[in-house]
Amino acid sequence: MLDANRDDFLLGIVGAGLMGRGIAQVAALGGVRVLLFDSRAEAAAEARDELGRTLSMLAQKGKITEAAAGAALARIGAAAGLDGLAGCHVVVEAIVESLEAKRELFRQLEAVVADDCLLATNTSSLSVTAIAAACRAPQRVAGFHFFSPVPLMKVVEVVDGALTALAAGDALTALARRMGHAPVRAQDTPGFIVNHAGRGYLTEALRVLGEGIADHARIDRILRGAAGFRLGPFELLDLTGLDVSCPVMETIYHQYYEEPRYRPSPLLRQRLAAGLLGRKSGRGFYAYADGRAQFPAVPPVPPASMLPLWVGTPGCGAREGLLRRLEAGGARLDRGTRPAPESVCIVLPVGRDASTAALDEGLDPARTVAVDPLFLDLYATLMGTPLTTASARDAVWAALAGGGTEVTVIRDSAGFVAQRVVAMIVNIGCDIAQQRIATPQDIDRAVTLGLGYPLGPLAMGDALGGATVLAILDALHGFYRDPRYRPSPWLTRRARLGVSLLTPEP
Ligand SMILES: NC(=O)c1ccc[n+]([C@@H]2O[C@H](COP(=O)([O-])OP(=O)(O)OC[C@H]3O[C@@H](n4cnc5c(N)ncnc54)[C@H](O)[C@@H]3O)[C@@H](O)[C@H]2O)c1
């Protein structure tokens, strides 16, 4: 097998654009000699000059030593023609994202490089298998998918096509480690791991918005504040730009033959047509002034109410904590076994909406207010039934806010916002494991490093409890009768057995 740690290892990089330069930088810093080639005559030399400036800047900032910067630059060369890559052990392409261009490039490279040279593609959206199929020796072709900016995004997906030799992926895995990156191994499938696992967060948030449950700013606040995501889904869409994210969502949905779990929202095409791309166009879901998002004002907390509060849903783990918190916030509690006629009835549903919870517990829907019991910390999400009075809702809002909890009010929703979005992420992560696209550990590593989620999807499911995630999905599935919410067999089995979602199968 090719030894990625040999001293004379030579990496060819075709395409000296954003990605090619980033790959060159991390390879050279990892001690790998690099040859850059680009079809635009001056591009490779320009890339080398720019890498020289970048490396000096890193040395000035004290991130690397002057000696390391000099040695890394000395390892980077430019090839005048494709035949200059003849001595490479691996050639990775980062050219234009076109199947035909990549197939043609690999055909030409096969005529130049040695028989044991590996050919790697940095494609994000094309099939590695389809690129390899154009080659005389498709077993030497694999995906080597880096994320932008390469020096900061420390994960790389090593993608095995249908015809890729195991040893080819093994060698790229070792090369990635030498470059200081964390390799994860994926079968060639649409979106590989990261772009596949990322479907849940955005499509479910868009669905909540499209259903009129909450506006984009509230959804972002809940997912940041209550569920711990670094960026809300609409901040993320604005950052990426709808011109980029909308086609990715549509492509993955169609590549999976209209799998409802990945269904994009009709809101996207309409916003794209309106030019509401995001940060880059000055307006997306948020308006931007001087590059900064203009967040709408948070509604003021209503005045404290004298209405007594009664908490239902016996058996819910969050019930006692909520009672203590309401008491600390100065609320008048109704501790009766059933609510007094004037009491506001608080329910704590999992996967159900407030209306269903009120009916299930035999409560007056006009006095029922639901609080999300799973994401109840310094943050609370509240919703009423369509009949809940403003005074009942405001009484719970004021009592929670009085105890120092930040409150966001939404309209009635099966699974609030965080429950359903997190359940979708977990379910899709489980199905990636079920399809054997990657190991459970690699799925979680790819998602934490590639998407910056607080936990990988499987660990996220374990944190809530597999049985709880299954209950949320079953309730959503029953409510909407939409196969989008059908639980993955991976989740169902592990939840029933009561074991971690990271449990592999021999
Ligand atoms: N930009 C990203 O965030 C990102 C992330 C992951 C993967 N990718 C993938 O990496 C690849 C490159 O993306 P980029 O953002 O660096 O693009 P880029 O436009 O910055 O660079 C592409 C470079 O390839 C050169 N090129 C085009 N066709 C060529 C050919 N046939 N032979 C030699 N050179 C050729 C161009 O002159 C250009 O310098 C694409 O396949 C893309 O899907 C991009």
UniProtKB/TrEMBL annotation:
Pfam family, one: 3HCDH_N
Domain 3-hydroxyacyl-CoA dehydrogenase NAD binding: 12-188
Annotated keywords: Oxidoreductase
Entry protein name: 3-hydroxyacyl-CoA dehydrogenase
Sequence intervals crossing the membrane: none
UniProt organism field: Pseudothauera rhizosphaerae
GO biological process annotation, one example: fatty acid metabolic process
Domain 3-hydroxyacyl-CoA dehydrogenase C-terminal: 191-288, 415-497
Molecular function as annotated in GO: NAD+ binding; oxidoreductase activity, acting on the CH-OH group of donors, NAD or NADP as acceptor
